[in-house]
Amino acid sequence: MSDNINLKRGLNVPIGGVAAQQIKKVIVADVVALKPTDFRGLVPKLLIHEGDRVLAGSPVMADKADLSILFTSPVSGTVKEIVRGEKRKLLEVRIEADKTVEYADFGIRDPKKLSADEIRDALLASGLWPGLVQRPYGTIANPNTTPKAIFISSFSTAPLANEVSFSLKDETENLQAGIDALSKLSNGEVHVSFNSKEEGKNPLKDLKNITAHYFSGPHPAGNVGIQIHHISPILKGETVWTVTPHILAAIGRFFRTGKLDLRRKVAVTGPKATAPSYIEAIAGFSMKAIADMCDSGDGDVRYISGDVLTGTNVGKEGFLGFFDDQVTLLAEGNYHEMFGWGKPFRSKKFSFSHTYFSWLTPNRKYAMDTNLNGGVRAFVMSDIYSKVLPMHLYPVYLAKACLAQDIDKMERFGIYEVLPEDLALCEYICPSKIEIQSILEDGIALMMKEMA
User: Fold this and answer.
1) pLDDT score of 381
2) Are 406 and 446 in contact (CB under 8 A)?
3) What is the C-alpha radius of gyration for the chain, rounded to an integer number of angstroms?
4) Confidence check: pLDDT of 218 > 90
5) Does the pLDDT of residue 259 top 60, yes or no?
6) CA distances from 131 to 20, 38, 46, 69, 331 (A)
7) What's the rounded Cα separation, in Å, for the pair 308 and 17?
8) In which band, very low, low, confident or very high, does the pLDDT at 200 lie, cut at 50, 70 and 90?
9) Does residue 248 carry a pLDDT above 80?
10) Where is the Na(+)-translocating NADH-quinone reductase subunit A C-terminal domain (predicted)?
11) Crossing angle, helix 395-404 and helix 436-450, to 10 degrees?
12) For 406-416, what is the mean pLDDT?
């Protein structure tokens, strides 16, 4: 089965700093961090103390709701620091890494010869299980349930996104092993979506035991949530699982080597990147390691783990997120512009609404920064969100239902189908500067609390 879905609505954000398809350097991390905040709804239970010795694959913490879900160290070394925030909330577990990684041995196994329970137990023990995300709500997959299907987006349309055709070009065997494992965890199919206009060779295209779908159109066409909406929408009471390509490769690598190996090619991008390119690094590496790739000469720089629309501002002292394969470097927009949008001509600014003349140069890339160009205004009714959201939903009504904490209306307007990342463009173009993703995050938290 295959199909071709052409999405018209959306927007490719024209930001400069795309990564050249070459490996700039290989990073040997001094310190890596495991961050519970990367996982929605997680209440962690620590299994180690400062000073403890760990191997790559040793348990570091567990999910209090289900202690079988383990989070393991991506490197070998010594637990250097346990970082807590307000009310002693666990923020990070920092591990001082060995120069040569020692791996816990889980044993080489062929997923084709394993049962679903054996695959589930292996992924839980390795710490790779949290890489499986369950929808609705975007939480860690429940190992005690069986999803109706598993969905994988093999491409990303996010600004300056990591190109899978380059970063996973040597991982075909690992990707196939990952598919062989995941296909046993669902009674349904493993759906893999491709970009029908992709120029490079996608390493997932030749995989077996998948159901292929083809999408074209601007961002967010590459979001797995958008693809699920058009392939098999999530109804109340249904669950599906999703996994990213680089986590899929790590799952396959685990079964083929018996080791937890979270190395990945990370795209270092953005207007403040001196030489946008790829690095090879471990999940959780410190942003200090790429300080030499950042142009910080004329002001402060924001280090974003992820893309500019949905990534996390981690700062120069921060660490790469568990799910991220991209770092974006932006200038901090901490300046005031006289007359602002009222200027008749602003050649260096992009405008979705044609306020400026950027629509005359559609192929131009802009050195965007973090300046909001104004403050929060009244949340007025408008159809502007629908222009960039290729889903059959009413995003303004959904956002207002979340603000009102009206669960019935949240269900009616599609809370089960979306995550904040799916409405990120709505926030980007919003004339009222409304933080839609934060509103939706609060709505999801309410649903998880009330519907548990």
Assistant:
1) 77
2) no
3) 22
4) yes
5) yes
6) 27, 10, 19, 11, 31
7) 12
8) confident
9) yes
10) 266-314
11) 60
12) 96
| Interatomic CA distance for residues 277 and 292, integer angstroms | 13
3-state secondary structure the chain: CCCEEECCCCCCCCECCCCCCCEEEECCCCEEEECHHHCECCCEEECCCCCCEECECCEEEEECCEEEEEEECCCCEEEEEEEECHHHCEEEEEEEECCCCCECCCCCCCHHHCCHHHHHHHHHHHCCHHHCEEECCCEECCCCCCCCCEEEECCCCCCCCCCHHHHCCCCHHHHHHHHHHHCCCCCCCEEEEEECCCCCCCCCCCCCCCEEEEEECCCCCCCHHHHHHHHCCCCCCCCEEECCHHHHHHHHHHHHHCCCCCEEEEEEECCCECCCEEEEEECCEEHHHHHHHECCCCCCEEEEECCCCCCEECCCCCECCCCCCEEEEEECCCCCCCCHHHCCCCCCCCCCCCCCHHHHCCCCCECCECCCCCCCCCCCCCCCHHHCCCCCCCHHHHHHHHHHCCHHHHHHCCCCCCCHHHHHHHHHHCCCCCCHHHHHHHHHHHHHHHCC
For strand 23-26 and strand 277-282, is the pairing parallel, antiparallel, or unpaired? parallel
CB 256 within 8 A of CB 233: no
Phi and psi (nearest 5°) for 321?
A: -70, 160
Tell me: the pLDDT tens digits for 341-366?
Answer: 666 667 778 888 877 777 778 888 98
| 55-72 per-position pLDDT tens digit | 999 999 999 999 999 999
- Length of the chain equals 452
Question: How would you classify residue 439: left for phi > 0, otherwise alpha for psi between -120 and 50, otherwise beta?
Answer: alpha
What amino acid is encoded at 172 in this protein?
A: T
Nearest to 166 by CA among 106, 246, 101: 246
Q: Residue 250 CB: number of other CB atoms within 10 A? A: 24
d(CA 331, CA 406) in angstroms, rounded, equals 38
Confidence of residue 1 (pLDDT cuts 50, 70, 90): very low
Tell me which residue has tokens 């329970």.
Answer: 117
State pTM to two decimals. Answer: 0.94
The answer to whether residue 450 scores a pLDDT higher than 50 is: yes
Residue 372 tokens, joined: 């909001």
**Model confidence at 340: pLDDT above 70:** no
Q: How many percent of the chain have pLDDT more than 90?
A: 84
- Mean pLDDT rounded to a whole number for the chain: 93
Nearest Cα neighbor of 5 from 223, 204, 234, 327 is 223
- Phi then psi for residue 64, to 5 deg, are -60, -30
Count of beta carbons in the 10 Å neighbourhood of residue 2: 9
